[in-house]
Specification:
The structure is a single chain. The protein has 84 residues and is of the alpha+beta class. The protein has a single domain (3-81), classed as Ribosomal Protein S8, Chain: A, domain 1 (2-Layer Sandwich). It has two helices and four strands. Strands 1-2-4-3 form a four-stranded mixed β-sheet, with helices on one face. Strand 3 (67-70) and strand 4 (78-81) form a beta hairpin. The model has no long low-confidence stretch (mean pLDDT 92).
């Protein structure tokens, strides 16, 4: 199974680039029909993870994917599952 990975450690403090990269990875998964996207906001204070979850729950993004899975073994990972 193919998957895409987006590590947000290097751009965590630049919200403009952050949203642009999140948008890019979701669109790439849809275009290439990738079943899974792994987003790594890291553990930290949890603010970046909250930002990612708010982004994924936006009205124009939500219909693009099937479900979100928060990794129960690693707080710093989010899986976005697609059904194509």
């Amino acid at each position: 199974m193919a998957k895409l990975v987006l590590d947000l450690h290097e751009i965590y403090n630049r919200s403009d680039k952050l949203d642009r990269e999140l948008n890019r990875i979701i669109q790439e998964a849809v275009t290439k029909r990738i079943a899974l996207v792994e987003i790594i906001p890291g553990k930290g204070s949890g603010q970046l993870k909250k930002h990612v979850l708010r982004f994924l729950n936006q009205g124009h993004i939500r219909p693009l994917y099937h479900r979100i899975e928060k990794d129960d073994r690693n707080f710093g990972r989010i899986f976005v599952h697609f059904r194509h």
